Every structure is written in C-alpha cells, then in structure tokens.
C-alpha cells in the first residue's frame, strides 16, 4: 500500500516512525514549512521533516494547498493509495481528500465526537475528564466529523499533564493506526457515524487563557494548570513578579481557611499556599521571566517580603510585570 504521510510535531513524528518500523511503504511526506524558534529565531525543521530526511523519503512543505496548486500536483504524482494525517496543521481541500484511492484518514487525540478541534488533549484535561484516547477516522471537509474507524481509550490520572498525555497517547494512536491500515477494508465496512448530539469543541489554547482565576475551585484550577504544561504554562502575578506554574498540588479541595480567593495563606519551604474560591492550592515549582523553573523555597529565600501571608496575588497586570 502506497502511503503518503502528513504531519508536523513530535506527536505526528512518533506515528510516522512507527509506520516505518513496521515496514509500511511511505512514498511521500508532507509537513509544514520550517518555523523560526528560540531567541535567535533560527528556522528549524519539524520533527516529521527530520524523520523523512533521515529515511530519504520525498518531502514536501507547502504553506497551503489552496494557494499552492503545485502541492496538489505533487500529491497526485505520488499515486497514493491512502493519506495518513496526524497533527498536520494545514487545511486539506476536497481535491486532496479525493486524490488517494482510499481517501484520507486521521489520528485525532480524543474520543470523538468529544473534543473536535485544535486542542483536544488540553481541553479534556482542563475539563476534568476521567478518560481520553485516540480516534482513527475518515477525513471529510467538516472539522473532525468523519466516520469513526477505530478508538482506543486511556484513563487520565491525577498527575497527568498535557505532556504526559501526549507521550501516552502517541504510541496508542500509532498502535490503532497500524491496526486500521492492516485491515483497512474491514474497518471501512464497520465505520461509525458520529453522534452530533455528543459533540464538544476543543478551541486552540492561548497564552491569555493561562492567567489563573483564583475565584474558581482548587480542583478546577489544578486541571487548568496541568493542561498548560508544557506550553504555554498557567501563570499569576505577585507584586511585580510574573510567575509561570510548573507544578502545583491541591492541598485542600474544600477549605480555603476563611481567606479571600487569591490571598496567600502561607509561604514556606514546602511551597506557596494560596486560597481559592473553594479549597487551597500549593505551588511548588515556579518560573520567573528569563529564568529556569525553580523550587519555590529557592525563590522564597531572596523574596520573603513579597510572599507575606495576607498578600493578594494578581493585583498587578501580567504585562506590567514584564516591562
């Protein structure tokens, strides 16, 4: 079977590598153009591109199938039987979907129809879902609404972050993808139409949404924090300090010790305890601008006065802290 693979980040790269390890014929790879990264804004290849180059697979990097007609010509020239799409990040036209003999299939990081959209892993964690998973589906023009071919589920633990879920879902997705490709006719024959009544949408996450609202309950804020790891990290301010949160724990899910939401209860070597609308959170690993993440006790050593009990957080706008 002649397979064209389309994907960009590490999550997609793990699927591509799994297909290569199993001996599937990858006749071409599509990935997004190189993007500037780091302080030097140096153009860097995607993880998928690196694998394609390492295996001498024909590589294509259009910025758009609509604006670059030659991209469709390149795809047609590969004479694909099927196109596998994993976190590609570019819209596919109907002409693209119609080109492969068996159409296009996608690995999506949720149990569809729950969490269609750009950030299913983060949104499922933030919502407090008990389970997530991967869905292998046929691609149609409507967003993530194609028929379901196969699903695999995964329990979300109290310690999971978006990073750990990505790492756990990638091999699960690759496993499901291989099962589908090995028995494509059977899975196509048993495809399930999605129930539109059960649809939820996973909008792309933004840095602005990372600002912690302490009027919420401690457990929901904990979900929020963990969904923002490893990017872009949830944050709050104390005085003129802007602090990204790398680790926090629910110290008490019910009791906020009679304090106002956002009020510091205690700062000690064990962590920074802050009252929520309901319950208490302890922050143990934080990051100052331009610094690496540090244990709170190390930050406290030089800034005890900033973290005095009774001090309220988020009284300073984040942008003011970064001036």
Provide an overview of this structure.
Helix 1 packs parallel to helix 2 (47-54) and helix 5 runs antiparallel to helix 8. The chain has two domains: 2-202, Formyl transferase, N-terminal domain (Rossmann fold, 3-Layer(aba) Sandwich), CATH 3.40.50; 209-321, Methionyl-tRNA Fmet Formyltransferase, Chain A, domain 2, CATH 3.10.25.10. The radius of gyration is 23 Å and the shape is elongated. Helix 1 links the parallel strand 1 and strand 2. By secondary structure, it is of the alpha/beta class. Strands 5-2-1-6-7-9-10 form a seven-stranded mixed sheet. The chain is 28% helix and 27% strand. It is built from ten helices and 17 strands. The protein has helices spanning 10-21, 47-54, 69-77, 94-98, 120-126, 162-182, 184-189, 218-227, 296-302, 318-321; strands at residues 2-7, 25-30, 35-37, 42-44, 59-60, 82-86, 104-108, 116-117, 131-138, 148-155, 201-202, 235-238, 241-252, 264-268, 271-275, 280-287, 294-295.
Q: Which ranges are low-confidence, i.e. pLDDT below 50, for 5 or more consecutive residues?
A: none
Order of helices and strands: EHEEEHEHEHEEHEEHHEHEEEEEEHH
What order do the strands of the largest sheet run in, or round the barrel if closed?
A: 5-2-1-6-7-9-10
- Global outline: elongated
